[in-house]
Amino acid sequence: MIAAANAAINAALKEKSVIDSLAIVGLMPHGSTPEEQARWQKAEYDTWGPLIKKIGFTADS
Amino acid sequence: MTITRRQLVQAFGASAALGALHPFAAHAQVDQVKVYFGFPAGSSGDTVARRVAEKWGGSAFSKNAGVVENKPGAGGRIALETLKGAPADGSVLAVAQVSAIANYPHIYSKMNYTDKDFAPVSIAAIMHHGLAVGPMVPASVKNVKDFLAWAKANPKDASYGSPGAGSTPHFLGALLGINSGVDLRHVPYRGSIPGVTDVVGGQVAAMVTPHGDFIANYKAGKLRILATSGPKRSIYVPDVPTFA
């Protein structure tokens, strides 16, 4: 099921009408595998944690 | 508190991503997929959810086109909390900013979901954030440096909106203030669009949000984008410099 959802999303992101709609709102289509998304999430988690803590950033900042 | 130039550039150089998340696996082709999105309709993130979901009809994933349901609030967390409770039969997923999974655990002391509650499906788009100002800020302010000088001289008016408390744009605004030693007051909005409306209307000086949410008003001359995040200029507004 994840594979079918992934394929449907990535196919849509290659369609010209989708690419053109995203350009209007400044978004670059960028598909991936589920594993790439998981790695991206992990990398962001590891990158921002220390800086968020260092400046003491909270939702009330 | 000091942060290094490298850290600031790194922060603004980051490309945020929108990804799809799914409750754990399931069965066969579904009839129709519901897609939760955690901000009001009309933003760039909402656009990617809608334009992609409407293409799913007749795929191995879904008989019919998917439908987007906006679940705004709490910086996108309400949509993910709703997804967590949704049936894991493939009929529901969410499009969310990666920061809602990756950054929020560092920011909110109480979270009602973790990354373990969802399965990643696919990254969908890369977004660059931008800083824009409206008519509250004089035309002589042409760049980020000018804006910070103006903000320092006009502390009563020196505020910026973001799409939500604790969001990445809020974080970027806080970093900008800390790094420059200028007190920038944060005004949380319920998504990009209400904040952009207030910038254009002169109720708030500035806004940090995905820069695509500025483009229509930028092209109409109703606000000025001073900078965008990312290592390179945005191909959509190439005349605007980066923060670096």
Write a brief caption for the model.
The complex is a heterodimer of chains A (61) and B (244). Chain A is mainly alpha-helical and 61 residues long.
Q: What is the number of helices of chain A?
A: 3
Oligomer: heterodimer
Which structural class matches the secondary elements of chain A?
mainly alpha
End-to-end C-alpha gap of chain A: 40 Å
Strand portion of chain A: under 5%
The main sheet of chain B orders its strands as 3-2-4-1-5
Instruction: Characterize the main sheet of chain A.
Output: none
Order of helices and strands of chain B: HEEHEHEHHEEHEHEHEHE
Cα separation of the termini of chain B: 20 Å
Mean pLDDT of chain A: 92
Question: What is the mean predicted local confidence, pLDDT of chain B?
Answer: 90
How many DSSP-defined strands of chain B?
10
Proportion in β-strands of chain B: 15-25%
Number of domains of chain B: 2
Compute the CA-based radius of gyration of chain B: 19 Å
Q: How many helix segments of chain B?
A: 9
List the helices and strands and how they pair.
The complex is a heterodimer of chains A (61) and B (244).
Chain A: H1 2-12, H2 16-24, E1 27-29, H3 34-55
Chain B: H1 5-13, E1 16-22, E2 34-37, H2 44-53, E3 67-70, H3 77-84, E4 92-97, H4 99-102, H5 104-107, E5 119-127, E6 129-133, H6 144-153, E7 159-162, H7 168-180, E8 185-188, H8 192-200, E9 206-210, H9 215-219, E10 224-228
Parallel strand pairs in B: 2-3, 2-4, 7-8, 7-9
Antiparallel strand pairs in B: 1-4, 1-5, 6-9, 6-10
Helix pairs in contact in B: 1-7
Main features:
A: mainly alpha, 2 domains, 5% strand, B: 244 residues, alpha/beta, 5-stranded mixed beta sheet, 9 helices, 10 strands, elongated
Structure description:
- The complex is a heterodimer of chains A (61) and B (244).
- With 61 residues, chain A is mainly α.
- Chain A contains three helices and one strand; from the N terminus they run ααβα.
- Chain B is of the alpha/beta class and 244 residues long.
- Helices cover 30% and strands 22% of the residues of chain B.
- In chain B, the strands form two sheets. Chain B has a five-stranded mixed beta sheet with strand order 3-2-4-1-5, sandwiched between helices. A five-stranded mixed beta sheet of chain B has the order 8-7-9-6-10, sandwiched between helices.
- In chain B, helix 1 (5-13) runs antiparallel to helix 7.
- Chain B starts with a helix and ends in a 16-residue tail after the last strand.
- The mean pLDDT of chain B is 90.
- Classes of the chains: A mainly alpha (61), B alpha/beta (244).
- At the A-B interface, helix 1, helix 2, strand 1 and helix 3 of A face helix 1, strand 1, helix 2, helix 4 and helix 5 of B.
